[in-house]
Every structure is written in C-alpha cells, then in structure tokens.
Design goal:
Layout (H helix, E strand, L loop, with lengths): L25 H23 L4 E2 L4 E2 L35 H9 L2 H11 L29 H21 L10 E2 H18 L2 H8 L9 H14 L2 H24 L6 E3 L1
Antiparallel strand pairs: 1-2, 3-4
Helix pairs in contact: 1-3, 2-4, 4-5, 5-8, 6-7
Amino acid sequence: MSSTTDASAARAQIAARTLRTDRWWLPPLATFIAFTAWVAYATVRSFMQEYYYVAEYNYLTPFYSPCVSVGCVPEASHLGQFLPDVWWLPYAAVSLPFLLLFRLTCYYYRKAYYRAFWLSPPACAVAEPHAKYTGETRFPLIMQNLHRYFFYIATAIALLNTYDAILSFTKADGSFGLGLGNIILVVNVVFLWGYSLSCHSCRSIIGGRLNHFSKHPVRYKLWGFVSRLNTKHMQYAWITLATLAFTDFYVMAVSAGWISDLRIVG
C-alpha cells in the first residue's frame, strides 16, 4: 500500500468509508423514505381512475389533468378523449410521463435521489460503494441532458393546472363559488409556478447567450427575479410534492363523499 503522503499516490489510502462522526446517513435515509412514500401514493392514485373530479365545484386533481381517456368525465377532458379506457393506462397518460421526466432530470432531484437511492455518494466526505463512475455520459443518465426540453412541456402543463384552478371558481350551474378546495388548488398552482420558475434551466433560458445585460434590461430584470427564486429551488421541490399530494387527497376525499367541501361563497 502506498503512503498517504506519497505525492505519486492517486488518492489518500484510507480504509474507512468515512471519518465523519455525525449522523450523515439521516438526510439520505429521510429522502429515501419520503420519495418512496410519495411515489407509492402517486402510483396508486394514478391507476385508481376514480375520485378525481368534483362536478358540482369543478375541482379537478392535478394528478388527472388533462384527463384524455374515453372513460374520463367530459368536463375534465380539456384536450379531448383519445386514449382507451384500460386499467393499466392512467387517465392523464399524456401529462404524467413528462412531469415525471421533468422532476427526474431536475438538478436538485438528481442530487437527492443519487444520494438516497444510488448512494453516489450518500453524503459529502463519504465513499460511495460503486467501483466505477461514468457520470451522465451513458444511457440512461445521458437523458438528464434533456431537462430543458422537459421544462418547456412542464410549463405548458402548469398553464393547464392554472386553468383548472381558475375554472374551479365557476360552479356547475355557472355561478361563482369559493370554497376550501379553490384555495387549495390555487396554493398548489402558485407553488408549482415557484418550482418551475426557480428551475436552473429557466434561469439559463432567460439569461443565457447574453454578452451584455445592459442591452437587455427586461431580460436582466427577469433573470434577477428568477435567480432569487432559484435560491429556493430545493424548498419548492419539496413543497410541491406536499401540495400535489394534499391537493389530490382533498379532491379525492370530496369526490368520494368522505368529507364536504368547506364553502365560503356559494
């Protein structure tokens, strides 16, 4: 074994996986549990194909927007109904794959699940168990380079979710209505926009390829706004997981008749 002080040594020859004495394993463990629980819930809900729409108040869960199966409620099918109604195909099969890919390729989520699921590495100053590392140069990780394109599609879906939230203020009889469900849908959309606009790709798109910000004052102001949001990207990533699940559960509970929507107006 070469000496750790030998200048020719490629790296320090330390047998221990880490010299850290703190509970470095807690953050990746917590991330693993939280991600696993969320994915399990989202998977079950996506394939339930019921309790996704409250006709009286026009509440549509974001998990099913847009609903493009022939089995969907027509009022929830903003983009039409063109997919077969089979149990193995989610009603929102058009949007869900792209939303999943947008989050999977997200810069923050990469760090989170690389550490929590692949232990690559599990924490700073902790050796990873993999003998070889090729980075994001081979399939499937080379797909991470498509994050910017998934961002465009996710933005379009966020616009659709915004439309759903606005539409929910009009009841089935055409009158104005305001309930707890409206507030939940709007809060969810606000945080979804916070997550999307704080995306690193969004910041690059707005401020990229500019040599002189002074010649582009509008883009500079937008870049400054997005840059401030970008510092909270991790928080928005976690908050939106919570708001998406809570919004879906609330719509499901009202649709199934487990609870009644708390009405404020109408």
